[in-house]
Amino acid sequence: MDSKITFTVxxxxxxxATDPQRPLLDVLREDLQLTGAKYGCGEGQCRACTVLLNxxxxxxxxxxxxxxxxxxxxxxxxxxxxxxLHPVQxxxxxxxxxxxxxxxxxxxxxxxxxxxxLPNPSExxxxxxxxxxxxxxxxxxxxxxxxRRAAGQTAQSAAPK
Amino acid sequence: xxxxxxxxxxxxxDYEETAERxxxxxxxxxxxxxxxxxxxxxxxVSAPALAQRRGGRGGGGTRSIAxxxxxxxxxxxxxxxxxxxxxxxxxxxxSQAAAEELRVPLSQIQLVMxxxxxxxxxxxxxxxxxxxxxxxxxRQGAAAARDLLLDFACKRWNVDRNAVQLKDGKVTDAAGQxxxxxxxxxxxxxxxxxxxxxxPSDVTLTPVKEWKVFGHPAxxxxxxxxxxxxxxxxxxxxRPGMLYGKVLRAPSYGAKLTSVDLGPAKAMxxxxxxxxxxxxxxxxxTAFLAEQARAAIAKTAKWDLSPHPASKDLFDYLxxxxxxxPSASPxxxxxxxxxxxxxxxxxxxxxxxxxxxxRAAVAEWTDGKLTVWTGTQNPFGCRSDLxxxxxxxxxxxxxxxxxxxxxxxxxxxxxxxxxxxxxAQAASRPVSLRWTREEEFTWAYFRPAALxxxxxxxxxxxxxxSWHFININSGxxxxxxxxxxxxxxxxxxxxxxxxxxxxxxxxxxxxxxxxRESFMDELAAAAGTDPLDFRLAHLExxxxxxxxxxxxxxxxxxxxxxxxxxxxxxxxxCGTEKGSYVAACVEVGISQGxxxxxxxxxxxxxxxxxxxxxxxxxxxxxxxxxxxxALREEMRFENxxxxxxxxxxxxxxxxxxxxxxxxxxxxxxxxxxAGAGETPIVVIAPAIANAVFHATGFRVRAxxxxxxxx
Lengths: 161, 710
Description:
The structure holds two protein chains of two kinds. Chain A is α+β, with helices and mostly antiparallel strands. Chain A has two domains: 3-76, Ubiquitin-like (UB roll) (Roll); 87-158, DNA polymerase, domain 1 (Orthogonal Bundle), CATH 1.10.150. Chain A is built from five helices and five strands. Chain A has helices at residues 24-31, 87-95, 104-117, 123-130, 140-158, and strands at residues 3-9, 12-18, 50-53, 56-59, 72-74. The radius of gyration of chain A is 16 Å and the shape is globular. The model of chain A has no long low-confidence stretch (mean pLDDT 96). Chain B is an alpha+beta fold. In chain B, the strands form eight sheets. Chain B has a seven-stranded mixed sheet with strand order 12-13-10-19-16-17-18, with helices on both faces. In chain B, helix 4 runs parallel beside helix 5 and helix 20 packs across helix 21. Residues 1-16 and 29-57 of chain B have low confidence and may be disordered. The interface between A and B is large, with 59 and 57 residues.
């Protein structure tokens, strides 16, 4: 049976009437045309589907849409402020941290989620957290450069002035 | 079919660039050469069909300048190519090619890729072919347009060519008073007619020393759309009224559908279900509902199963079914009188490309014409497949390939486009079909497994006197040895293929280099020589010597190879393929049977470097991707079922696998540029295997590499 589910996506309140068991990923992509989050495996093993749920990076392919009811979601489409890219997006663009780019939205939101929790992550924090994200082009070297660059900026702005 | 390289027969690229095709033919009786291997998958199995080229290599015939370049009266410059972008960097490189010859800033080039109704057929995007073939084709078209602009200015001002200058897209006269641009050329009816002329074959290309765009870093032109999520991948395409499809797959390889009841699916609201021979699929307003419909009819399906070899018996099976297996060693005389004669077998498992974006297509029918958006490396081949499957003429099929999420040689085919089109036909609405990860790991084609047998002899000076090398099943690329090896015979033998197989980043060159470079280490040990010295003593090719010597020197090979440290080993390997040259030295650490690749020093040379940033990315990516099949990746199957069809069970490289990398790109501006997306992978597995021996004394003869827990 369909349920009415209301959540905030990229700052806008949205309501969908749908099967509550549908993956959040499908609802974002099919009902709201937010196709930035990608399907890669359907079981949380690649994290191409990563979105922020209340600021925390989650695998939207594994999240039933019911869990998003009355919650706040940010997808890659909502990360920039108008034309101004989010610092993590800036870092990825500056480092050229993509080949095919299919993992990029998930990588960027995974990094934002990491920095929300740990504004000054160690190399170990980065590796252990990002280990769940797959890049099949195996562009990990430049991804790490971009993540470190973004982390450096966050740490700087978080430091006491 | 046997390929024997002791003769002059050149390696046909076809085997490398093809894949077993899913040969759908809807609505009509199937042709007799098509063998039904499984429901929904009709695979052409005859060798001629395998070798049949689809879509052509492109680049042939004369083309007008206008077919390659469109000049807008508003100053826009649109360049058209049949090549695709799957992350390898063709969009940036081909844009560079046009900008260089047109003498315009890179940002001024709009590149239209792989829309069969707009672009010339540049052939399949495979075999590192874009750099040596399409880059020159684009440059010629652009240089011809540039010459037209210069002619136009000279004519209008009534001056000589040497009295004008072209820079930043503007021709200026000697006095710097008057200027003309490509927009002016486009606005002149007379002058723009010349764009319809064929591209002259003798057009002058810009020499390397005058390059302003090539040789400098060029970032991906649509990079901003990648980081904002604005870029639409094939699986992101949305059309009005679009449904989402699912296809019923067989429970195992070779199973044949005998009956199915579509009733349970059709009973669901807004669900369309269709059966066409062995093809059964559904479409629904959501993928979730389509999956429920698929699952409901799957319960009613009856199948005839067929026996299928298991992966644990794979290498016996390949040997038993090898075609024209030689009855005796061809160089028995050399083996008999040799100081040392060695014979070893090497195993390379089936692996899957696992591009992060699975096969996906959106199909839409309008007035009997079909448009498909899909991720394929072979847009014109995919169009041919659709024409054949639906009995359509060329002008009734349009294939559009948006920049897609990874190919690695795994997307040479168009089966998902055919499936989406059949569903769209049944639904009378556009349908989006995206394979699941499990489908990718089961029904996509695989890099062929290899059984390689190598035999060689050494005289008392440690010199190779004979070399016999047989690749069974995986292919002929790099089967030949680059070393001077006395009497030499290198063969590729086909076998029966347990899984659907096809290309993969360098295809067989990975297996052949693994076996050859591992075997060379064994021979070096038998000769009592350092592996580097042994190779150099048998190696003449100056380009291969250069990368090997550079890598050894950067790695400090001599000192490190002579030292023994606990649980640590070093190894090296070199090879050449597709006109480029590579060598690597690696350091591994071993603990309890676990191998950690700590450091890789790789030197790569592919002629004149066009885009140094992208080249570095390709080399980095190839090295790390290569760690997967070297250390862990292996498709396991039994009774026709895949046992590890998910990322949980099939372990591809991740962040924590990344070793310290020292990559050195040898630039050779004096040599033609070769493609670079593939060859850097070939030395990784053998260098690791040789390092494992250095650390443990255990000889590795299989990929993935396993060492006993000591």
